[in-house]
Amino acid sequence: MKLNLFVSTFLLFTFSGIAQINPQFNPVPASYNVNSPNPVYAWDINYDNIDLNKQVFHLFLPDTTGNFPLVVFIHGGGYIGGTPDIVTTPVRRQDIKYFLENGIAFASVGYRLINNTGPDTEGVIKCLNDAKRALQFIRYNASDLYIDPTKIALQGRSAGASSSYWLGTLPDMADPNATDPILQESTRVCAVDLYGSQATLDMYKWETQVFDNFDGNGTNYTLDEMENLMGFERTSNFYGGFNSISQILVDPALIQYRQDVDQLFHLSNDDPPMYISSQSLAVHPSQDLVHHSFHGREIHNTALAVGVSEVKADIPALSINTTNGESGIEFLVRHLNSCSNTLTVPDIQVSENYIDIFPNPIVNQFTIKSKSTIYKIDILDVNGRILQTINNIENYHTMDISAMSNGLYFIRASDRLNNILEVQKIIKL
């Protein structure tokens, strides 16, 4: 079962010492015509260092005071093209204007692409994992980016819609045991807005579900026909390389790969509200293989079947319109404004074998009684950030937190090898 949005597994963090970011904000250009007091933007913020040119995002803020809800936009391009610079186009400028004037930040995310001029041994999972890391990076650095980490929604076009859809349907991908603290952040979001998404990135399901009996006469559009349309190299590269299309049906690794990128498989009733726009008017699948209206229909029908809390769709070729006149961007703003998902802390099984803390709740000072195996004590805030660290802990150690605000914090005890031994909650009064 996926949790409601931002279940904090940060209690088990092993921090790797990532440097604080320092984005340089400038006034939003006049061409965006934003009617708010101090809109700013920062260009090319890197969220990873594998490819510094691709793994970037642009961030637009209503202001640099406060922490704003955020829409993360992922560009399209068939996973072989496109850049986050699409924000300079008139349509995206208009969307950004709308979000900023409604007090919502906007990030346009780039990602590594599938090689289109030779073999690619990673395939589409590389693009999806980049989008995942960008989301986690923004959450980890939320305070530096003026973002409210509990109020994030996703928006995408074409391939970017599929990435947003994938992030929205996968179980929370926070890894509490990751040595990189960014990867310990939640991937759950408040809502997703999908324009031209594929129903699934498992192409076999395109044959067996999306285009099953596509003409009403019992005809399927087959994998072989798709490969002929797309070309062998592009089809092979999509899954990191294979020798023949039939291999994806029998090779255990490729079967698992297909499941990992199959949004229909992962859809469940605790996924975020979804807005689905599928505007293709193509009749035959070969006329618009990746944007055909049947993709939108399959997402719509499956999301309703599994019980997603709210599903809106605009699919004109199939006379499906359940939007009641609400646009995708209005849908996101509504859900970001009303999002009830908040930062929560799970119940912790405290062993109490290594440290005792008294008093607790705490006014200004407290004492830790520890075993000889304890080497280091960290105090963490509710975002998992270290506020104080004390090394060479003795059997009794007094700590002063009088300068800290009232609220919930965590004490984490580690040994000399940085193994986490215990985590306890404390309350500052």
What structural class is derived from the secondary structure elements?
Answer: alpha/beta
Count of β-strands = 17
Largest sheet report: 10 strands, mixed
pLDDT < 50 stretches? 1-19, 342-351
What is the CATH fold-level name of the largest domain?
Rossmann fold
The percentage helix is 10-25%
As a whole number of angstroms, the C-alpha radius of gyration is 24 Å
Instruction: Give the strand content.
Output: 15-25%
* Named CATH architecture of the largest domain: 3-Layer(aba) Sandwich
Describe the protein's architecture and organization.
There is one protein chain. The protein has eleven helices and 17 strands. The protein is an alpha/beta fold. It folds into two domains: 10-338, Rossmann fold, CATH 3.40.50.1820; 355-428, Macroglobulin (MG2) domain (Immunoglobulin-like, Sandwich), CATH 2.60.40.1930. The strands form three sheets. The chain has a ten-stranded mixed β-sheet, with helices on both faces. A four-stranded antiparallel β-sheet has the order 14-13-16-17, with no helix packed on it. The protein has a three-stranded antiparallel β-sheet with strand order 11-12-15, with no helix packed on it. A hairpin with a 5-residue loop joins strand 16 (407-414) and strand 17. The longest helix is centred in the N-terminal third of the chain and has 17 residues, at 124-140. It is globular.
